[in-house]
Amino acid sequence: MSDSLFDRIGGHAAMDAAVDLFYTKVIGDDWINHFFKTTDMKKQRAKQKAFLAMVFGGPNNYTGLDMRAAHKPMVENGLNDTHFDAVAGHLQSTLQELGVADDAVAEVMAIAGGARDDVLNR
User: Fold this and answer.
1) pLDDT for 80-112, tens place per residue?
2) 12, 53 contact by CB (below 8 A)
3) pTM for the full predicted model
4) Which of 44, 107, 111 has the alpha carbon at shortest distance from 71?
5) DSSP line for 53-96
6) Of 14, 41, 44, 78, which is most buried with the most CB atoms under 10 A?
């Protein structure tokens, strides 16, 4: 077994479960769901699964925009640190709910936190 974070959290099956549960939480959150009002969530889920697989050391099949470009329209519509924190909270609770080991959750959250300035176009 590889030492990649992707493999340690369970590979593609874990990515599928995590992204699906994560977006269920995000879409159910009235504080942030308006940012996804016009988003094709089926396509979004697929892009997110490919992106996370790449970022976590798995296969690189991601063909989407970089973080700044992908989030620029959201920033122009008011995306800020409080929204980022809400999304990050949903990510953390999703991983914990799925039984991901604490050290792997911490690693994922460090990666997510490291993307804050790119997501918020700073």
Assistant:
1) 999 999 999 999 999 999 999 999 999 999 999
2) yes
3) 0.90
4) 44
5) HHHTTS-----S--HHHHHHHHHHTT--HHHHHHHHHHHHHHHH
6) 14
